[in-house]
């Protein structure tokens, strides 16, 4: 399983969100790729999924979360995702 996190840029809130998702993914032994709107890959995913809200967590070309979760919310989302697999 591999997740993709798209950030709006190098803002403090985006950096904090990246840290939360990375911590949760590490805890659940899941790979996460982080990109932002300035990257070609981030732009391509944003266009393909017609994203309007960021940060956005993507799995299998589907948005599974947007915004800035706390660690408990991120852990629940990741745990639920792992159980579905």
What overall form do the CA principal axes indicate?
globular
Helix count equals: 3
Strand content: 15-25%
Assign a percent range to the helix content.
40-55%
| Mean residue pLDDT | 94
The number of strands is: 4
Just give the CATH class. Answer: Alpha Beta
How many domain regions?
Answer: 1
| Class derived from helix and strand content | alpha+beta
Report the order of strands and helices: EHEHEEH
Low-confidence runs of at least 5 consecutive residues: none
Question: What do these coordinates show?
Answer:
The chain has helices at residues 12-27, 40-49, 71-84; strands spanning 2-7, 31-36, 56-59, 62-66. The protein is built from 3 helices and 4 strands, in the order E-H-E-H-E-E-H. Strands 2-1-3-4 form a 4-stranded mixed beta sheet, sandwiched between helices. It has one domain (2-84): 3-Layer(aba) Sandwich (Glutaredoxin). The protein is 47% helix and 25% strand.
Please describe the topology of this protein.
Elements: E1 2-7, H1 12-27, E2 31-36, H2 40-49, E3 56-59, E4 62-66, H3 71-84
Helix pairs in contact: 1-3
Give a brief outline of the structure:
This protein has 85 residues and is of the alpha+beta class.
List keywords for this structure.
85 residues; alpha+beta; Glutaredoxin; four-stranded mixed β-sheet; 4 strands
């Amino acid at each position: 399983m591999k997740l993709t996190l798209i950030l709006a840029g190098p803002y403090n809130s985006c950096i904090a969100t990246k840290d939360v998702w990375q911590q949760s993914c590490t805890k659940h032994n899941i790979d996460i790729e982080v990109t932002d709107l300035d990257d070609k890959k981030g732009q391509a995913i944003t266009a393909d999924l017609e994203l309007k809200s960021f940060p956005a967590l993507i799995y299998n070309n589907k948005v599974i979360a947007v915004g800035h979760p706390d660690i408990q919310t991120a852990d629940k989302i990741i745990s639920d995702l792992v159980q579905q697999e």
